[in-house]
Amino acid sequence: MWPTPQEMRDDAQSAPVLSPAGRPPFFIAPSGVSQELEDIGHLVGDDWQHGSQPVPDFLLDVLDNKMLMPSSRMVPQPVSINGETYSITLGPRGRSDAQLIHHPGPSSVPDARIGAPATSASSGDRSGRVLGASEWLGDEHVQRDYELLAQELRGSNPNLAARTRFVDPLMAFRVGQGTEIDALRAFHRIVDDRNGNDTADFLFLPVNDASATDINRRGTHWSLLLVDRRDRERPVAYHYDSARGHNDRPAAMLAARVGANLQDAPISQQRNGYDCGVFVVDGTRALVRRLAERQQADLNLDNLVVDRQALQNRLRG
Q: Which part of the chain is the Ubiquitin-like protease family profile domain (predicted)?
């Protein structure tokens, strides 16, 4: 049971953080255990030129033998090359067109960030305006597109806009994984209007697999939780995951915190290791369009086609 607002402390904080600069890259195994990435730099040599590129032919069998090739197109295999983080992804023809996707490291570590590890192509840029061709989305990218969408909705459908919340990813993280006091405080900031009334019928909550307690678990995957609260007694949380099953645990934690019944929702599956965040923002926009058109909207996103270039253009302004 959550405490009353009077019991909450103003200084309660529960923000995810990145691992300190200089530590080896980490990733989260399916078991949820943080593991150090295997550095394969010795296989390619010190003269390796960093950047996204096809997996060299001579590496294919070696990676297979070391069990470092991904088992499907939807789940990338993180590795390190001479201290830089990469993800190995399979193309439409499987291992024959496998790619090494480079996630360049910034010169400094932001104070609190989820979704994009210390490997973001936009370096120290926290405006959310810069997004690379294969860059993982950070919370700043999701939040900027959500702010743009909220502004668009206020202009086109003020009634729906007043009942809809596009939740800051860091705020969603606090609700799902913060202390109970901090989570309740964040929840009321989300659903209450300026007069303190709960007016939120629809919550769009980005879900991330980062950890609030383990600094090495800085997040590798985004998914989307749409909470329909039109019936306050029986809210429903629809979970859209473009790598089906990956974010089941954090989604369940978040749904439980907002008191909603969790349901898996159909969404098309990503074909690379870096577009999960694009699925979140484009999926949100598709659902908002449908909610604006009719009260009983079709919430199936099986046919969703994402457009990273369009997102880059929106973010740039």
A: 121-287
User: How does pLDDT run across 49-71, given as a tens digit for each residue?
Assistant: 888 888 998 898 888 888 888 77
Three-state SS annotation for 97-120? EEEEEEECCCCCCCCCCCCCCCCC
Q: Where in the chain is the domain with CATH 3.40.395.10?
A: 136-316
pLDDT at position 288 is 98
110 to each of 12, 113, 173, how far by Cα in Å? Answer: 20, 7, 17
With 70 as the cut, is the pLDDT of residue 102 above it? yes
Q: Which residues neighbour 47 within 8 Å (Cβ) at sequence distance 6 or greater?
A: none
- The secondary element (H helix, E strand) that includes residue 63 is helix 57-65
Q: What pLDDT is stored for residue 124 in this prediction?
A: 56
Q: Which amino acid is at 19?
A: S
Question: Cα 218 to the chain's mean position, in Å?
Answer: 11
Amino acid found at 130: V
Half-sphere exposure of 39 (CA within 13 A, CB side): 12
In order of 106, 132, 315, 316, the CA distances from 310 in angstroms are 25, 12, 9, 10
Q: Which of 117, 140, 143 is nearest to 274 (CA)?
A: 117
Q: How far apart are CA 17 and CA 157, in angstroms?
A: 37
- The reported pLDDT for the residue numbered 94 is 77
The class level of CATH for 136-316 reads alpha beta
pLDDT at residue 154 in the model: 97
